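Re: beginner question about structure tokens

> Can someone show what the tokenized structure looks like for a real chain? I only ever see the sequence side.

Sure, here's an example I had lying around. Input first:
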Amino acid sequence: MNELTIGFKRLGKRKIKQLHITFAVKPETLKALVMACVRHEVKKYNEKREGVSILPFLGPAEIEAQGQTGKIAFGDSPNNTLAVEKEAMENALIAFKDGLYLVFIDDEEITDLDAPIQLSEQSVVSFIRMTFLSGTYW
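And the corresponding structure tokens:
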């Protein structure tokens, strides 16, 4: 099993973001799974920042695809700062320990980063962001 689909959900939102990720090595703990997801997302983020487009334009297919998300944009970003993988991994672990997101595998919450996990291609992995609990109400 080297490929898995992961769902990301924010409480209070209906939309679930799907991430298809391929692992070089099958994660055996929650920590390894989180690190693999962070590594994948940092790589994707940095590639987007490093990409150069001389003439950015959107074709009908891109407009249709972006229309499904509710926002149509050319994709150019004024921020070209690259993400640092090590910092992103540290932040992801701290956020988990602080309860900013929960992880469920096959409808079972995993609360220990070092707990062994069993993943198959049919596994349903969900990350639920608990952002409404962290606010500036105080």
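Each token stands for a local structural state, so reading them left to right follows the chain. Residues 67 and 73 are 10 Å apart (CA to CA).
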